[in-house]
Amino acid sequence: MVPSLRAESLFVSDLNDIPANDFEDPDVPSGPLELPLDAWHRARGGRMVEFAGYSMPVQYEGIIAEHLWTRESAGLFDVSHMGQLYISGEGVEAALEAALPIDLSTLPLGGVRYSLLLDETGGILDDLMVTRWGTGFYLVVNGATKWDDIAHLREILPDDVTINHLDDSALLALQGPKAAEALAPLVAGEQALGDLSFMRGAAFKLGGVDAWISRSGYTGEDGFEISIPAESAAAIAELIAGQAQVRPIGLGARDSLRLEAGLPLYGHDMTPEHEPIEAGLAFGINKRRRSEGGFPGADRVIAALNDGPARRRVGLSIEGRMAAREGAVVLAGDAPVGVVTSGGFSPSLERPIAMAYVASEHAAPGTQLSIDVRGRKLSASVVPMPFVPHRYYRKGAA
């Protein structure tokens, strides 16, 4: 069942649509800025750091404890630094398909799909989520790149297409195996929360507040992302955190959770220097677009699909207790064959893990490699990702 309520009526009906190419360059704020929940985080003991231009909580009680709580119960994350955009206007579907390697003809109302913003050579400018909202599309882009993304979209989208930056909306994520149990009693809508499966969303009332809720996230667990008016963020966060299953979780655990889930982080595991196939993101190039092309960098991306890339993003299991961090060189014997892009200690597996780009001939699972960490060679082996199995909620799945 897909939502019958047009979600744009909740958030953008009172906004002035402006043609994409009629914007002046955005005034990019200087940071660190405060999120709507800044005082709420501090009152709960959040240790604040600067991230993506905002002051954000890196932890509350401790990264390992917060990580394991999310894997066992439900963690509440403030991700309001992310960019929330609404793209609409005449020809919007065709315009977005010219900008993204996505097949929007197969995306139903309320459907959520992963996609990529690419430059003219196929390099990754950002990864993002696209949702069909009635006559337009709701995009969630990374916080560190949102101003560049907005400028890029303004440049390449035609005049008949409009962009609204939903900067009056906050974004929360409730993640973990008990997320649905915690959230369901708090919402009301035309459909039950449990009717949502992975990568589907709908409009709900949450604590009496209009909310857009999708069953999605960045931890590998079942969970939800919740867009609400910024003015209601503290009340809604307090409501959700008041559930026995829920604790607030900081950036530190968010990073270790996504690493265990094998999920790349923009600016680290994917950059304009990487194209989607070597990054392991071929699923973000929809089937029709692989044959038709017509998106930025299509020639390079399709060639990599057909011929295979020269390097690949892989998972590495590391022997011992020492972690390898971003920038560490990966070796086959004494020869450099790659570089670590994310690494750390896995609280769930109780051992160090990493993601790295390595030459394709060394990318097969089981390949024995080593990592140079300050002159010390750490033994490592290529392993399939995710490191910890995904537990997304899919209807009909065992």
TrEMBL record:
Residue span, GCVT N-terminal domain: 38-287
Superkingdom in the source lineage: Bacteria
Keywords: Aminotransferase, Methyltransferase, Transferase
Residue ranges of every copy of the Aminomethyltransferase C-terminal domain listed in the record: 311-388
Keyword Glycosyltransferase belongs to the record: no
Enzyme class: transferase
GO biological process: glycine catabolic process; methylation
Residues that, per the record, bind substrate: E225
Single Gene Ontology MF annotation: methyltransferase activity
Catalytic activity from the UniProt record: N(6)-[(R)-S(8)-aminomethyldihydrolipoyl]-L-lysyl-[protein] + (6S)-5,6,7,8-tetrahydrofolate = N(6)-[(R)-dihydrolipoyl]-L-lysyl-[protein] + (6R)-5,10-methylene-5,6,7,8-tetrahydrofolate + NH4(+)
A cellular-component GO term for this protein: glycine cleavage complex
Keyword match Methyltransferase: yes
EC number(s) recorded for this UniProt protein: 2.1.2.10
Family in the record: Belongs to the GcvT family.
Protein name per Swiss-Prot or TrEMBL: aminomethyltransferase
Organism of provenance: Novosphingobium olei
Highest classification ranks of the organism: Bacteria, Pseudomonadati, Pseudomonadota, Alphaproteobacteria, Sphingomonadales
Gene: gcvT
